[in-house]
């Protein structure tokens, strides 16, 4: 739960200090999966909370596979169909 996320953030900060990588937390989003108490996790987190999905490299990342398919493949199929029939 919350302590796992806090521990992950601590490890992440240590890694960034060693590697000189940086994360733009104001641009980062957290999509909680299988979380019962969302308030417990969101307090003190530097990330925006995504409720249903977020976009990464043009792909909508969703909570379920069915939504992943609907939000990406169907749109791609429509685009390809339109491009082929120009």
Annotation keywords:
86 residues; alpha+beta; 2 domains; two-stranded parallel ribbon
Number of strands: 4
Q: Structural class, from helix and strand content?
A: alpha+beta
Count of the separate structural domains: 2
Shape verdict: elongated
Count of DSSP helices?
Answer: 3
Q: List the helices and strands in order.
A: HEHEEEH
CA(first)-CA(last) distance = 51 Å
Q: What is the mean predicted local confidence, pLDDT?
A: 81
Helix content: 40-55%
Strand order of the largest sheet: 1-2
Measured by DSSP, the beta-strand proportion falls in 5-15%
The radius of gyration computed from the alpha-carbon positions, rounded to a whole number of angstroms, is 17 Å
- The oligomerization state is single chain
Question: Spans with pLDDT under 50 lasting ≥5 residues?
Answer: none
Largest sheet: 2 strands, parallel
What report would you give on this structure?
It is a single chain. This protein has 86 residues and is α+β, with helices and mostly antiparallel strands. The chain folds into two domains: 1-51, no CATH class; 55-86. 50% of the residues lie in helices and 14% in strands. The protein has helices spanning 2-19, 38-42, 65-84, and strands at 29-30, 48-49, 53-56, 59-62. Strand 1, helix 2 (38-42) and strand 2 (48-49) form a beta-alpha-beta unit. The protein is elongated, with a radius of gyration of 17 Å.
């Amino acid at each position: 739960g919350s302590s796992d996320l806090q521990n992950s953030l601590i490890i992440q900060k240590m890694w960034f200090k060693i590697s000189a990588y940086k994360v733009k937390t104001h641009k980062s989003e957290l999509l909680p999966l299988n979380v019962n108490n969302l308030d417990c996790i969101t307090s003190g987190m530097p990330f925006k909370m995504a409720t249903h999905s977020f976009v990464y490299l043009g792909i909508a990342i969703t909570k379920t596979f069915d939504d992943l398919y609907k939000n990406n493949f169907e749109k791609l199929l429509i685009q390809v169909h339109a491009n082929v029939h120009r």
